[in-house]
């Protein structure tokens, strides 16, 4: 399917295209003409503004893969467009899912025709990757339901965002492409509420605070992220101490961005690393089975109805035991939630 329009015409035609792309096996092509007011804008930013159903990450992925052409040629995300440039964006057909379904039990917090919210267990990898093609959340989701968004590709059907393997708690997956795009827009716009609980070493100097150090790949240790990376990207973590002693503290962290290992890197930077973190604080890891980080609450606007939905994942037993072992109480202010066991 091909859609030929300038930026002023996109809005009406985009809505029709969005619904079709959710089920079409053919590629969808958008043709845009850059107006004067958007001259010298970065290509990726121009396309996000013109086609907001695509996240910036998806746009950059398409550009790098050669599915975006300016004046007939491929280019890079940071390319500056000029007035009158013809830009062609092709959304390739969804790749066939090759990951095998597995009968793995899921703790379901919410489910409807568009999405599912899971309380992910610690130790479960979100999607297949190098060295692991089975026993992931994706394998479990494919067994639970046969229809998922294909935007993430054959290895990540339905996956809108990720949690580290050892991190437990709330994660949402999309059942169709329309829901996936709408949820991705909210993550990109940072309107999704993401609240974590972290059990950290020591006592924080302040009861509340905001950490805004940029985060990028560590220049030497490639498995790590760092606040000293010369190519770091903006990151913001807001924290509040819930319980504390000289030995450890239980803190609530609100994410205002979504960088890899963000909470772990920021808390390590201020001198209070997450207990059990083998990568950033190995000397605080030996007494814990995993990093003590839990995705406690997740909130977003429903992609179809626009209604605000909020979810809470109960603390797993190992997290509760770790809090108690540090001499802290586990009574927390919670909200109502519904949990169903499936599998």
Based on Cα principal axes, name the global outline. globular
Find the CATH superfamily of the domain at 2-91.
RNA-binding S4 domain
Whole-angstrom Rg = 21 Å
**Helix share of residues?**
10-25%
**Strand tally:** 17
Class by alpha and beta content: alpha+beta
Portion in strands: 25-35%
Distance between the termini: 39 Å
Question: What would you say about this model in short?
Answer:
This protein is an alpha+beta fold and 343 residues long. It has a domain at 2-91: RNA-binding S4 domain (Structural Genomics Hypothetical 15.5 Kd Protein In mrcA-pckA Intergenic Region, Chain A).
Written overview of the protein:
There is one protein chain. The protein is of the alpha+beta class and 343 residues long. The protein has a domain of 90 residues: Structural Genomics Hypothetical 15.5 Kd Protein In mrcA-pckA Intergenic Region, Chain A (Roll), CATH 3.10.290. Helices cover 19% and strands 26% of the residues. The chain has 7 helices and 17 strands. The strands form 3 sheets. Strands 6, 7, 8, 9, 10, 13, 14, 15, 16 and 17 form a 10-stranded mixed beta sheet that branches. A hairpin with a 3-residue loop joins strand 13 and strand 14. About 6% of the residues have low confidence.
Give the arrangement of secondary structure elements.
Blueprint: E1 2-4, H1 10-21, E2 28-33, H2 43-50, H3 56-64, E3 68-70, E4 73-74, E5 86-91, E6 106-111, E7 115-120, H4 137-144, E8 168-174, H5 177-188, E9 193-201, E10 208-211, E11 216-217, E12 225-226, E13 237-244, E14 248-255, H6 262-269, E15 293-301, E16 308-312, H7 317-325, E17 340-342
Parallel strand pairs: 1-2, 8-15
Antiparallel strand pairs: 2-5, 3-4, 3-5, 6-7, 6-17, 7-8, 9-14, 9-15, 10-13, 11-12, 13-14, 15-16
């Amino acid at each position: 399917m091909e859609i030929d329009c300038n930026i002023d015409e996109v809005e009406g035609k985009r809505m029709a295209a969005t619904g079709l792309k959710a089920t079409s096996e053919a590629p969808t092509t958008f043709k845009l003409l850059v107006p004067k007011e958007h001259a010298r804008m970065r290509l990726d930013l121009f396309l996000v503004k013109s086609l907001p159903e695509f996240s910036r990450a998806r746009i950059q992925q398409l550009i790098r893969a050669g599915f975006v052409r300016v004046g007939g040629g491929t280019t890079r995300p940071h390319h500056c467009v000029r007035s009158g440039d013809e830009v062609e964006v092709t959304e390739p057909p969804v790749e066939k899912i090759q990951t095998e379904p597995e009968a793995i039990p899921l703790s379901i917090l919410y489910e409807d025709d568009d999405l599912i919210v899971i309380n992910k267990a610690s130790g479960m990898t979100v999607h297949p990757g190098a060295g692991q093609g089975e026993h992931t959340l994706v394998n479990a989701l494919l067994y639970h339901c046969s229809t998922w968004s294909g935007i993430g590709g054959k290895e990540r059907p339905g996956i809108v965002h990720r949690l580290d393997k050892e991190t437990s708690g709330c994660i949402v997956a999309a059942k169709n492409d329309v829901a996936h795009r709408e949820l991705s827009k909210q993550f990109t716009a940072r309107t999704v509420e993401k609240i974590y609980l972290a059990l950290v070493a020591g006592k924080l100097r302040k009861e509340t605070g905001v950490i805004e150090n940029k985060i990028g790949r560590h220049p030497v240790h490639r498995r790590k992220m760092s606040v000293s990376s010369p190519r770091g990207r903006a990151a913001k973590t807001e924290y509040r101490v819930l319980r504390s002693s000289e030995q450890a503290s239980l803190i609530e962290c609100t994410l205002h961005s979504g960088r890899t290992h963000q909470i772990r890197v920021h808390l390590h930077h201020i001198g209070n690393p997450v207990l059990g973190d083998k990568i950033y604080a190995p000397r605080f890891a030996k007494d814990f089975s995993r990093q003590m980080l839990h995705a406690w609450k997740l909130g977003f606007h429903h992609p179809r109805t626009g209604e605000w939905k909020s979810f809470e994942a109960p603390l797993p037993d190992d997290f509760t035991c770790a809090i108690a072992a540090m001499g802290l109480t586990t009574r927390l202010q919670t909200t109502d939630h519904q949990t169903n066991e499936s599998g």
